Structure of Acyl-coenzyme A thioesterase 13:
Amino acid sequence: MDVEAVKRYLENSASNDGDEYEQPLRFFERLIMHGVRVDLIETGRIVCSFKVPPRLLNGSNYLHAGAIATLVDMVTSAVVLTVGARYVGASVEIDVSFMDAAYAEEEIEMEARALHVGKTFAVLSIEFRKKSTGKIIAQGRHTKYLVPPSNFVPPTSKL
């Protein structure tokens, strides 16, 4: 596992370094991932923290469900990399259950786990908790098809 590659995947999702022709404009990733801190990376597990910014609040002034769903996608995708996968694959299903609200400036913790990573499919989970109380805000489950991206070039053999 390349811990730094996993960390870069999560933390650099919020930046747009380089010119617009070198990397695609990833508006939602940058909008939502900005401020996510990686606290722990282990094989099959990632813990991140995040202070809820006002830009991600819904009309009722709590963290928008769409922002949580995007965090489910991004953070659980990174867990695939911790078990040695060379690419994060494509989402097949994302399911989120909401149990409580998180408000502006509230610190939350996200703990993502790889439940199963095979040759073609991965099943991942994530839990969102209030850092101050440990109360669960949301739980997510993500199934991914581990297909290589269209621009993937396998390494060549040195034989």
